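Page 47, continued from p. 46.
Same chain as before, 349 aa.
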Amino acid sequence: MKKTSTRLADGRELVYYDSRDDVVRDAVDRRPLQPVATTVEIREDALLGDRVAVASHRQGRTHLPPPDACPLCPSREGRATEIPDSDYDVVVFENRFPSLAGDAGRCEVVCFTPDHDASFADLTEERAALVLEAWTDRTAELAALPGVEQVFCFENRGAEIGVTLGHPHGQIYAYPFTTPRTALMLRSQEEYAARTGGGNLFDDLVRRERADGARVVLDARHWTAFVPYAAHWPYEVHLYPRRRVPDLRALDDAARAELPGVYLELLRRFDRIFGDGRPPTPYIAAWHQAPLSDPRRDAFALHLELFTIRRTSGKLKFLAGSESGMSVFVNDVPPEAAARRLREVASAS
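Result:
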């Protein structure tokens, strides 16, 4: 992997990640951009104890432009984009309309491919491995920034999810605090360890799922994917490395080498859930990594949570009264049935 860092016209950082060492990235962003002005404020909810990022500048962000005006495609003669070069492998840059900025964290955009009409599932294993390298490198770089407590790599895919750009891309958030979901997991692990005399909840959870087998979707040499026993979403898969690690940086070479193929297989299965000829499945792919300074960090398990809001062909799972008002999910698809369907749509050997 070759890494080339540069600056956009308004001062934001952009980093090229290339598979080849001989690639030269010296294109200059010649757009007449003004420095980005952000108004991010982190407010704490006194009743729930969680935090809300108030970012009014995001009201003016680009929203579903036509393909010939996509800001994530490479630049070409007569039209400059966020990526100055005429081609790229993988690119990461600071978001022009960040949810977190300054003392309140940082937001980055990850472009997986220059092909506007592709998706992550269309990538080769080599390109997927390069994305993994970029996620890992950005985790290390962002973890070193003052005030950052947790790094979150994720992809929102599909208009139904609420994406504002159709080009295949993901995001990375660097939070100045531990996110609520992670705090809940850490608390559950702490209570489990106290109850079992030092057991690890993440390890035992994966062990139980592998032993039961009913919800296992894919069991590779170094990774296990399963539908959780109490899945919140119609089709939801959690992916864990066999050897527990706190974040992407700690994966060993064997797990790192196997991950691209496993991850691509899961995404391709998601696109086949509802049958041939159906629209691509909208999904969220969320990498959960341990907070940086929490003393319970080493007990946390890096894992992916991949889920769709589509419950059946043409119908979405909306967060209605119970979910939105009380955070009590109602799932119409039994987890065992979801796992069975995800096994049925496995790629041919």
